[in-house]
């Protein structure tokens, strides 16, 4: 047989032949060609996620494994953290108990900003003295200095955020290159708030 896609003949990389008559019924399972196996990598993003979003990601991961992953599919769990790099919590496995344990505790999650104040502008609420002789001129100078400081802080914050996003994208690119060695169809599920 041949496979046509939009009228063009495509090469066949692998297929699975099942002869139910040879097994005496329809409940038989044929041996799986490694090239046709599905492998899922669940990645918890610890850089751009709050504790609440990690809890939601854990539930989404549990639901995904329970509803979308077949018995023969392989799943691995990992964490991505710009400060610590990428780390596998499990290897690719069919062991659902091991996966449930890794999903329940991505272990390395410790927020770097427990008060959620990063990215806020400390100069946004600055006001000058009022009701003092010459205060108008001082207020103008104060406002100008505060505005310059705020612009500088915003630029520095923007540069910092961009560098972290760039590092994360590069890290995920390295993970994708490493997955070239895994046989079969590979899928990466990134669980992230940001």
Helix % is: 25-40%
Strand content: 15-25%
Uncertain segments: 109-128
SSE series: EEEHEEHHE
What's the arrangement of secondary structure elements?
Layout: E1 3-5, E2 8-10, E3 38-45, H1 51-68, E4 74-81, E5 85-88, H2 96-104, H3 135-178, E6 185-191
Parallel strand pairs: 3-4, 3-6
Antiparallel strand pairs: 1-2, 4-5
Helix pairs in contact: 1-2
Task: Describe the protein in words.
The protein is of the alpha/beta class. It contains three helices and six strands. It has helices spanning 51-68, 96-104, 135-178; strands at 3-5, 8-10, 38-45, 74-81, 85-88, 185-191. The strands form two sheets. The chain has a four-stranded mixed β-sheet, with helices on both faces. Helix 1 (51-68) links the parallel strand 3 (38-45) and strand 4 (74-81). Helix 1 packs antiparallel against helix 2. The chain is elongated. Mean pLDDT is 77; it is low at 109-128.
């Amino acid at each position: 047989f041949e496979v046509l896609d939009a009228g063009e003949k495509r090469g066949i990389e692998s297929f699975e032949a099942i002869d139910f008559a040879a097994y005496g019924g329809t409940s038989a399972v044929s041996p799986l060609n490694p090239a046709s196996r599905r492998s899922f990598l669940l990645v918890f993003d610890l850089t751009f996620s709050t504790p609440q979003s990690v809890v939601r990601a854990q539930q989404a991961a549990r639901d995904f494994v329970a509803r979308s992953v077949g018995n023969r599919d392989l799943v691995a769990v990992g964490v991505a953290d710009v400060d610590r790099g990428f780390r596998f919590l499990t290897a690719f496995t069919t062991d659902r108990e091991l996966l449930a344990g890794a999903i329940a505790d991505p272990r390395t999650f410790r927020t770097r900003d427990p008060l959620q104040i990063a990215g806020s502008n400390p100069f946004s609420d600055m006001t000058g003295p009022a009701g003092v002789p010459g205060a108008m001129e001082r207020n103008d100078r104060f406002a100008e200095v505060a505005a310059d400081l705020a612009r500088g802080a915003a630029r520095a914050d923007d540069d910092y955020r961009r560098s972290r996003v760039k590092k994360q994208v590069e890290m995920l690119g390295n993970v994708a290159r490493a997955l070239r060695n895994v046989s079969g169809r590979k899928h990466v599920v990134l669980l992230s708030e940001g």
